[in-house]
Structure formats: structure tokens, C-alpha cells
Amino acid sequence: MTKKAVLLLSGGLDSATTCVIAKDIGYQVYAISFDYGQRHKVELQKAIELAKYLDVKDHKIINIDLRLFGGSALTDNINVPKNRDTESEEVPVTYVPARNTIFLSYALAYAETIGAYDIFIGANILDYSGYPDCRPEYLNAYEKMANLALSATVSGDKKINIKAPLIELSKAQIISKGLELGLDYSKTLSCYDPDDSGKPCGQCDSCQLRNKGFKDNNMVDPAL
């Protein structure tokens, strides 16, 4: 019997790689993306295109408006930092308050309705921007909470698993794994501040980390 999994699909490099990993190990993927008022909304179009390219079983787009709260350069009138030191331990203004908690909660509800007990997220803690909701401690705590929240997990022998296969990989290792599995990275977008055509800025944290990952693989980013 094919295992079902819900996967958070942003349109970026990490979530696309997570998707091909999930499929490679035998999961039927149900993808979920969010139109949350992000300034880089072109990523949502990439997610739609990726869902088709990756041949997921179903793809749902959830509309929520985190601009109501703001507090992030992705949802408010705050400039996206450029050429920042990506090794800084300071949480950057591109962090969206509680975003992964919100996204995972939607994924959890979706999983319960389709009988899936594995939720995939492309979080990693090596080449990333220091977001607190990407850490293993957070994901482990969320998994524990999730298993206290569902009818199937509190009344039976089912267990929710939050799977983050990239959690301890560098960006170079992530790219290498995706290439090994045949992923075409030209179909992904990672930039926080692309132009209207989807061209990446090349200077935000996400662009810097992505560019370094391809450089470390002796490649030029195929999306450029």
C-alpha cells in the first residue's frame, strides 16, 4: 500500500528537493502551498508549476493574509536585506512570525482528512537564515504537540511524523541530492525579492545561500 504524505511546497529549492526525496522513498505526495501576502508572490506560481512537474497526487493552495500582522520584510513595508552576513546569528527581518507553525497546522489538518501520518518540510539548520522555526528542537516539539491533537493519534496506534530530510545538510549537499534524483533546479525560485518577471535579486540571504550551493557543486545556478 502506497504511503501518503503531506508536503509544504513553496516553489523554492529546499521544498522541491524534499519532494523528490519523499517520492524516491515511496510516498504519494499531497502538496500544500500558501498565498500568505508574501511580497515574492511569484514563488506561488513556481509552486504551481513544480507541483505539475513533480507529479504530486494533489496540490492545495491556502489563502491567508499575514500582512494583517506584518512584522517581516516579506509581509510588510520593510526592505529585504541585501548582502547580509549569512553567518550572523541575528534573526533577520525576513523571518515571518510563526509562519511554520501556521503552515504545519494547515498541513496537519490536511493530513488528518486524507489519512496521512507523515508531513514533510524542507527545513535545514546549516545554510539557512537563522529562523527559529526551522530548528530540530522546534520540529520535535511540534511533532509532540501534533500527536496530542488528532483523533487518530490519541485514540489509536497512529503517530504523526514531522520529517525534515534536509535538516543537517548544507545547501551544496541539498543541491547534490536533488541532482542525483533528477531534479531540474531551473524550475525553482528561492529569492525573497525577485522582480516582476521572477528574476532573482542575487543579493538577499536566500540568493546568497543558493548561489554558494551551486558554486560548491561547480555549477552556475540553472535558474539564472
Give the topology, please.
Blueprint: E1 3-8, H1 13-24, E2 27-35, H2 42-53, E3 58-63, H3 99-114, E4 118-120, H4 136-146, H5 151-155, E5 161-163, H6 171-180, H7 205-216
Helix pairs in contact: 1-6, 6-7
Q: What features would you highlight for this structure?
A:
single chain; alpha/beta; 5 strands; 224 residues
Describe the protein in words.
The protein has a single domain (3-216), classed as HUPs (Rossmann fold), CATH 3.40.50. The chain is 35% helix and 12% strand. The chain has helices at 13-24, 42-53, 99-114, 136-146, 151-155, 171-180, 205-216, and strands at residues 3-8, 27-35, 58-63, 118-120, 161-163. It is α/β, with parallel strands linked by helices and 224 residues long. The protein is built from seven helices and five strands. The N and C termini lie far apart (40 Å).
CATH architecture verdict: 3-Layer(aba) Sandwich
CATH fold-level assignment: Rossmann fold
Percentage of β-strand residues: 5-15%
Query: Treating each run of at least 4 consecutive H or I residues as one helix, how many helices?
Result: 7
Shape: globular
The parts where pLDDT drops under 50 for at least 5 residues are none
- The overall pLDDT average reads 92
> What pattern of helices and strands is seen along the backbone?
EHEHEHEHHEHH
Task: Say which CATH homologous superfamily is assigned.
Answer: HUPs
Please compute the radius of gyration using only Cα atoms.
17 Å
Order the strands across the largest sheet as they lie in space.
Answer: 3-2-1-4-5
Secondary structure: number of strands: 5
CATH class membership: Alpha Beta
Number of domains: 1
